[in-house]
């Protein structure tokens, strides 16, 4: 079981909705810690830190305490830590919650680039317009899967000419009505 867990950890990255890195460590110290936790060799950690600092716009913030960073920077640091070991699968829990629109746009560009390079990205979101970026969408309500399909399939299930948000509401409301019968 221990080897299986280590193998899984090597292939999976995770970014929590709430900042969950170490606020009393610097940006660099957080990245060094997570590099070690993922089992990267010391030299590889140094190389990857340099890459992710640049990629996520954290150059110049390496020596700042993570807990003192603004929200957008914390989110970028979380992404950098989750991607330090180049996982095959990345889980993102409400990744754009609390960040401003320009940071949100940059974030989605990074995510679509990751997906284009073959990383599987699984996202939870309440921002249905952002779900449009995904190849497949699953809508669930009260633990029950209501639909799994492409954005177009989801919109069509909701009704004619609906936005993703309108389709989401229609699908959930229809399901709840059916349960009441």
Automatic annotation (TrEMBL):
Alphabetized UniProt keyword annotations: ATP-binding, Nucleotide-binding
PROSITE patterns in alphabetical order: ABC_TRANSPORTER_2
GO molecular function: ATP binding; ATP hydrolysis activity
Domain ABC transporter: 4-167
Keyword ATP-binding set for record: yes
Entry superkingdom: Bacteria
Protein name in the entry: ABC transporter ATP-binding protein
Organism in which the protein naturally occurs: Dialister invisus
């Amino acid at each position: 079981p221990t080897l299986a867990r280590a193998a899984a950890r090597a292939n999976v990255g995770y970014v929590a909705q709430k900042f969950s890195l170490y606020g009393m460590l610097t940006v660099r110290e957080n990245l060094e810690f997570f590099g070690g936790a993922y089992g990267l060799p010391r030299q590889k950690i140094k190389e990857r830190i340099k890459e992710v600092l640049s990629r996520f716009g954290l150059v110049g913030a390496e020596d700042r305490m993570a807990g003192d960073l603004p929200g957008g920077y914390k989110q970028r640091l979380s992404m950098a830590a989750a991607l330090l070991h180049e996982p095959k699968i990345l889980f993102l829990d409400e990744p754009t919650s609390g960040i401003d629109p320009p940071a949100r746009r940059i974030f989605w560009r990074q995510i679509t680039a990751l997906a284009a390079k073959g990383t599987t990205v699984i996202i939870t979101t309440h921002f249905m317009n952002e779900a449009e970026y995904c190849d497949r969408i699953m809508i669930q309500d009260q633990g029950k899967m209501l639909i799994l399909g492409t954005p177009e399939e989801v919109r069509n299930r909701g009704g004619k000419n609906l936005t993703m948000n309108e389709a989401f509401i229609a699908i959930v409301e229809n399901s709840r009505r059916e349960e009441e019968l």
